[in-house]
Amino acid sequence: MSKENSKRNILVTNALPYANGPLHLGHLLEHIQSDIWVRYQRSIGNECTYICGEDAHGTSIMLKAEEKGITPEKLIKEVKESHIEDFKAFNISHDNYHTTHSEENQFYSETIFNLLKDKGFIEEKEIKQLFDIEKNMFLADRFVKGTCPNCKAKDQYGDNCETCSATYSAIELIDPISVITNTKPKVKNSKHLFFKLSNLKDEIKEWLENSLIQKQALNKLSEWVDGEIKDWNISRDEPYFGFKIPGYKDKYFYV
Questions:
Q1: Which among 248, 232, 246 has a CA at the least distance from the CA of 196?
Q2: Low-confidence residues of the chain, pLDDT below 50?
Q3: Structure pTM?
């Protein structure tokens, strides 16, 4: 094989910085390491495209914008500009640095959702959730704290215990408290949209068996696949900052 034909085409990205505050050292460490690796690949003749962008949707952004008295759109624009300035200060050069709050992302999110729905992979289910009466909103797992139902450790989030590593749903917490208003939430029912991931267990296992994933990562993923694969809740209730799900008045895509 000639040197010209042995060139690799490589796509590189990083974990997307969340668009509600400044970069931290962890962001810079990851991006500097990636930038060095990209420069090296180019120096030995490989084609390397380096992309990243802002993770720009979610309850935290909505609440931060509310706290500042500005719109979420203005907040994510300002944060993106500050992130780009910081990356430039460290000579980090992305080929494209974009945002999840874009027309392209909305188009493809809606397109994929509609295709999955047409194929029968979207199911509507009614679930119980914690609701902040004072704020008039359903609470995501990270906005609830309480006592772990497993080891009884206090001050744990609504999805997992940092003391015993148990996982659970927020409604299982003992004496839950909303971290937004410091009040006791009530349990309410809400309809949500689920991607039927459990229907694809065989396909996922087959893909993993034929993948080039590192052995350690493959072993961990296999543990997950060999267990019970749960359907994935892809929706969030209003109020929320993000893209509305087509055909549903008060539901947003959860990202």
A1: 232
A2: 1
A3: 0.88
